[in-house]
TrEMBL record:
<feature type="compositionally biased region" description="Basic and acidic residues">
    <location>
        <begin position="89"/>
        <end position="108"/>
    </location>
</feature>
<feature type="region of interest" description="Disordered">
    <location>
        <begin position="89"/>
        <end position="143"/>
    </location>
</feature>
<protein>
    <recommendedName>
        <fullName>Transcription initiation factor TFIID subunit 13</fullName>
    </recommendedName>
</protein>
<dbReference type="GO" id="GO:0051123">
    <property type="term" value="P:RNA polymerase II preinitiation complex assembly"/>
</dbReference>
<dbReference type="InterPro" id="IPR003195">
    <property type="entry name" value="TFIID_TAF13"/>
</dbReference>
<dbReference type="GO" id="GO:0005669">
    <property type="term" value="C:transcription factor TFIID complex"/>
</dbReference>
<dbReference type="GO" id="GO:0003743">
    <property type="term" value="F:translation initiation factor activity"/>
</dbReference>
<feature type="compositionally biased region" description="Acidic residues">
    <location>
        <begin position="124"/>
        <end position="136"/>
    </location>
</feature>
<comment type="similarity">
    <text>Belongs to the TAF13 family.</text>
</comment>
<keyword id="KW-0805">Transcription regulation</keyword>
<dbReference type="GO" id="GO:0046982">
    <property type="term" value="F:protein heterodimerization activity"/>
</dbReference>
<keyword id="KW-0804">Transcription</keyword>
<keyword id="KW-0539">Nucleus</keyword>
<dbReference type="InterPro" id="IPR009072">
    <property type="entry name" value="Histone-fold"/>
</dbReference>
<dbReference type="Pfam" id="PF02269">
    <property type="entry name" value="TFIID-18kDa"/>
</dbReference>
């Protein structure tokens, strides 16, 4: 609540009474909207509240209705983006697996010499990264 008040122009540490009053106002507002949405759902013969029930509850206030619609539209966009990303990740993983299989096949065809050289190169790169003096400098210790 303090962050909400501060974001809308109040001091960083508002009076406890101010926070309490805002909490009461928001709680009453949320309860009344939830009650209206529940009543709309019950009238429709449902026990669960749906998006349309909140739209019905906000029908008399276009500003609130617009915000609710905007939030649900953004939620749909985020879901679509996640699906696209997940599908893209699956394709990338399949491509990487196919590429790895091709490399393994080419390594077995050319013999173990190429594979041993490649692993030696990887090991050399790994050891080159281990610089004890640089680690001591990073930790603030000197020899």
């Amino acid at each position: 609540m303090q962050s909400l008040l501060y974001a809308h122009g109040d001091v960083q540490n508002p009076l406890p009474e101010t926070v309490r009053v805002l909490d009461e106002i928001l709680t009453d507002f949320m309860q009344s909207i939830a009650f209206e949405a529940t009543r709309a759902a019950n009238y429709s013969g449902r026990q669960k509240i749906k998006y349309e029930d909140f739209e019905f509850a906000f029908r008399k206030n276009p500003a609130f209705l617009g915000k609710v619609q905007e939030v649900f539209e953004k939620q749909k966009e985020i879901k679509k983006a996640r699906e696209i990303l997940r599908d893209g990740e699956d394709e990338i993983m399949k491509d990487a697996a196919d590429e790895e299989k091709k490399r393994e096949k080419s390594d077995t065809r050319t013999g173990g010499a190429v594979g041993a050289a490649a692993s030696r190169v990887e090991e050399e790169l790994g050891e080159a990264d281990d610089d004890a003096e640089a680690e001591l400098d990073a930790l603030g210790k000197k020899r």
